[in-house]
Amino acid sequence: MIGQFGYSALATYGFCLIFNVRRIIGFYASIVGGLGWLVYYIFNKMGYSLAISFFLAGAVATLGSEIIARKLKTPVTSSLIPTFTPLVPGSGAYYTMLYLVNGEYEKAMEKGAETFIISIAIIFGFLVITDFFKLYTKYKNRKKRG
Questions:
Q1: Cβ-contact 59, 128 below 8 angstroms
Q2: Which of 30, 52, 144, 145 is the most buried (most CB within 10 A)?
Q3: Do residues 85 and 26 lie in contact, with contact meaning Cβ atoms separated by under 8 Å?
Q4: Res 146: pLDDT
């Protein structure tokens, strides 16, 4: 499990290096990326579906990115995009295309549907946390005004 965290954090930090993300943001984003993957890994091993596992992982990655952005006073996207790196279902898209090219249409449909479900679950995790932070910010601003 430590290896899963380490490799995903390292992959996230590598993404940050390639795309010139500030070092401090890259450091924290790599920790959050590792935590996001760890959440997926733990819930998947506990027997939860791929959709639930990736939903929770996407929510954790988004929550961590929102916290990084507020603490370091940077745009959320500077930490959000790297933290999603370990979660992106790139292999699913690759195998879907491979099966299509090889004429294995049934396998392509299965892998394509799985990849689509993973993507939607990550997006819903992102949306739930982002909307929560928007509502919180509106509430906080309204309370300040009076």
A1: yes
A2: 30
A3: no
A4: 64
